[in-house]
Write a structure and sequence with these properties.
alpha/beta; nine-stranded mixed β-sheet; six-stranded antiparallel β-sheet; S-adenosylmethionine:tRNA ribosyltransferase-isomerase
């Protein structure tokens, strides 16, 4: 299977650079369970897709303002994208970007009271020591929201709220679980009235989710690794639902990857872990029965994941329909509802 099997043309004007005014105003393209004709719908209609007893699983990670912009003492501009803490004492793994490679010992100044020292470097990967009286507060005060590279504009005050789900709890992501951006408290309440139960997992989304696949053969690709947590209550809720034949719906590819990684041994297992699971056509799903997801990059691991659930040809046909119908793509774009189809 070749990466080029998941390629498609996407006009620039279909890439959503800003969110709609209302979270639940996005369009929703549905692939029917019977494999029939595609259905154009709206996110506000999600309660109509709920089956009584459904468990909809949300990723409750919270995006941190992980992009820091500063200067070397010489005046050179430096960007640091925080990835995750590296142990204690305010040491972080990060990506570094400057006009010259960052050398260990380099000091980057973000403000009079906030700076970083580069400890190690391996290509663009750096380990930095953040220096401030209150490092988490300094990150919140001086950091920028890490918008995806295809949103080619500076972040705004609006992004602080809109590039975050309403159910975000645990800080640590440097990219939003974007399918969840569509949900509001009112919409979720309506879904519960229709018979849905919500459960939570936490996967701190890393920037690798936006990295292009650099190989031709799908089997040669190595996925980035991310940390996740499955609460005990979520494991109990999901395992009970599976045993009773009820449907598990992943809200976003990160929720799906967490559920599948944590159920590798059979039932969903509670606890913390790390995963580099790569899901593409031919994968046997253990836990997830359906997926709510946004539209993804061509030749990306995310479109391969969706194709694993519903079939490559069917998903690419849906993407063609979406482009011809003016659906908005990527993080601030519209969504798809994708059931697991037996012939995928």
């Amino acid at each position: 299977m070749q990466v080029s099997d998941f390629d498609f043309e996407l006009p620039e004007y279909l890439i959503a650079k800003r969110p709609l005014e209302a979270r639940d105003a996005s369009r929703l393209l549905c692939i029917p369970e019977d494999g029939g004709a595609l259905v154009d719908s709206m996110i506000r209609d999600l309660p109509l897709l709920v089956k009584p007893g459904d468990v909809w699983v949300l990723n409750d990670t919270r995006v941190i303002p992980a992009r820091l912009v500063g200067n070397k003492p010489s005046g050179g501009r430096v960007e640091i994208l925080l990835l995750e803490p590296a142990g204690e004492n305010n040491v972080w793994l990060a990506w570094g970007k400057s006009n010259k490679p960052l050398k260990p010992g380099t000091i980057v100044v973000f403000s009079d009271s906030f700076s970083a020292e580069v400890l190690t470097r391996d290509g663009k990967n750096v380990e930095v020591l953040l220096c401030a009286d209150d490092v988490p507060a300094a990150i919140e005060s001086h950091g920028h929201m890490p918008l995806p590279p295809y949103i080619d504009r500076p972040d705004s005050r609006e992004d602080r709220e809109r590039y975050q789900t309403v159910f975000a709890r645990h800080a640590g992501a440097v990219a939003a679980p974007t399918a969840g951006l569509h949900l509001t408290s009112e919409l979720m309440a309506a879904m519960q009235q229709a018979g849905a139960t919500f459960a939570h997992v936490t996967l701190h989304v890393g920037p690798g989710t936006f990295q292009p696949v650099q190989v031709d053969d799908v089997n040669s690709h190595v996925m980035h690794e991310e940390a996740y947590i499955v609460p005990e209550q979520t494991a109990e809720t999901v395992n009970r639902a599976k045993a009773e034949g009820r449907r598990i719906v992943a809200v976003g590819t990160t929720s799906l990857r967490t559920l599948e990684a944590a159920s590798a041994a059979g039932e969903l297992k509670a606890g913390a872990g790390r995963t580099s699971i790569f899901i593409y056509p031919g994968y046997h799903f253990r836990t997830v029965d359906a997926l709510l997801t946004n539209f993804h990059l061509p030749k990306s691991t995310l479109i391969m994941l969706v194709a694993a659930l519903a079939g490559r040809a069917r998903v690419l046909d849906a993407y063609t329909h979406a482009r011809e119908s003016g659906y908005r793509f990527y993080s601030y774009g519209d969504a798809m509802f994708v059931p697991k189809l037996s012939d995928a």
